[in-house]
């Protein structure tokens, strides 16, 4: 049975009057196009084209096939137009569960621009690494994004494997300290982390993995023993507090660009040998929806992953 692409190639050959010209129009190798015509002739049991040094002409059967092919391709075009219009009327749903990352706002802007739907419903759940796994298992999210350090990644991978969640590590970078520029913490960061005890530590709620992720030591200093802390699950509230308090966020380098727009400085802690991993989580036995695939593609482009 002839396929759509064969009919398209045949129509192009007839209208171009030459296989070589049609090959250039279709960006195909001439031998491949000639083989397609030959296969069609074998299927029909008769010649469709008469070849000469001037080009090609249709046989009576070839001429009849040309008109039928044109009609069929026009109907395919109508179906494609209908499909596009139908997609635009269907709402787009996307649920993403995120831990330890403030997403760059350009991701949502670009996603909104590229999606064809007239209505788009996006739910971003900012939570703990454990809850990200649970959201995927329970069907409350189709895509998970977590940031975990080298030490706890193996344990997290084993738990995810047991829950049939695919773990994809797409980048690995140093820890990063975020603070308001007018505090000039970079003067002290090159020496020791213990001075952070005098500042407020702002962070998301921590589960087992979250505590381990923040449990780094240098010269005996543990981040958790900071004298004062503020816990918030709201990105905008954390940004506001960071701008008006003598505080810091112990985070990652991927949110550096987003923070820079709010006058927040970000300093990589390259002398800490443990690094952070940018991880994408998906269900093993389920393919991403079109919205999920588009969101993931844009995310990788924005972060250059």
TrEMBL record:
GO molecular function: DNA-binding transcription factor activity; transcription cis-regulatory region binding
Keywords, comma-separated and alphabetical: DNA-binding, Transcription, Transcription regulation
Domain called HTH lysR-type: residue spans: 2-59
UniProt xrefs under Pfam families: HTH_1
InterPro entries cross-referenced by the UniProt entry: LysR_HTH_N, WH-like_DNA-bd_sf, WH_DNA-bd_sf
PROSITE patterns found in the cross-reference section: HTH_LYSR
Family classification: Belongs to the LysR transcriptional regulatory family.
Name used for this protein in its record: HTH lysR-type domain-containing protein
Source species of the chain: Massilimicrobiota timonensis
Higher taxonomy: Bacteria, Bacillati, Bacillota, Erysipelotrichia, Erysipelotrichales
């Amino acid at each position: 049975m002839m396929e759509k692409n064969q009919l398209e190639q045949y129509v192009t050959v007839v209208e171009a009057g030459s296989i070589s010209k049609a090959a250039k129009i279709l960006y195909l190798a001439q031998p491949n196009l000639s083989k397609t015509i030959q296969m069609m002739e074998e299927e029909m049991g008769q010649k469709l084209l008469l070849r000469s040094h001037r080009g090609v002409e249709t046989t009576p059967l070839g001429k009849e096939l040309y008109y039928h092919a044109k009609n069929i391709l026009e109907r395919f075009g109508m179906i494609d137009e209908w499909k596009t219009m139908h997609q635009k009327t269907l709402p787009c749903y996307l649920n993403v569960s995120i831990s330890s990352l403030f997403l760059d706002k350009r991701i949502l802007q670009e996603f909104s621009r590229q999606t064809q739907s007239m209505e788009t419903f996006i739910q971003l759940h900012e939570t703990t690494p454990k809850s990200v796994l649970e959201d995927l298992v329970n069907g409350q999210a189709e895509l998970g994004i977590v940031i975990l350090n080298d030490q706890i990644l193996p344990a997290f991978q084993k738990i995810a494997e047991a829950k049939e969640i695919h773990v994809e590590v797409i980048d690995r970078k140093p820890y990063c300290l975020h603070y308001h520029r007018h505090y000039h913490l970079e003067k002290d960061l090159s020496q020791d982390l213990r001075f952070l005890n005098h500042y407020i530590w702002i962070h998301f709620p921590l589960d087992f993995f979250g505590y381990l992720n923040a449990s780094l030591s240098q010269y005996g200093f543990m981040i958790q023993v900071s004298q004062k802390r503020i816990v918030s699950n709201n990105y905008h509230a954390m940004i506001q507090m960071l701008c008006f308090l003598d505080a810091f966020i112990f985070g990652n380098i991927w949110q550096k660009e987003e923070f820079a727009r709010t006058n927040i400085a970000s300093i990589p802690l390259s002398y800490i040998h443990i690094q952070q991993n940018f991880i994408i989580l998906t269900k093993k036995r389920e393919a991403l929806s079109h919205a999920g695939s588009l969101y993931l593609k844009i995310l990788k482009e924005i972060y250059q992953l």
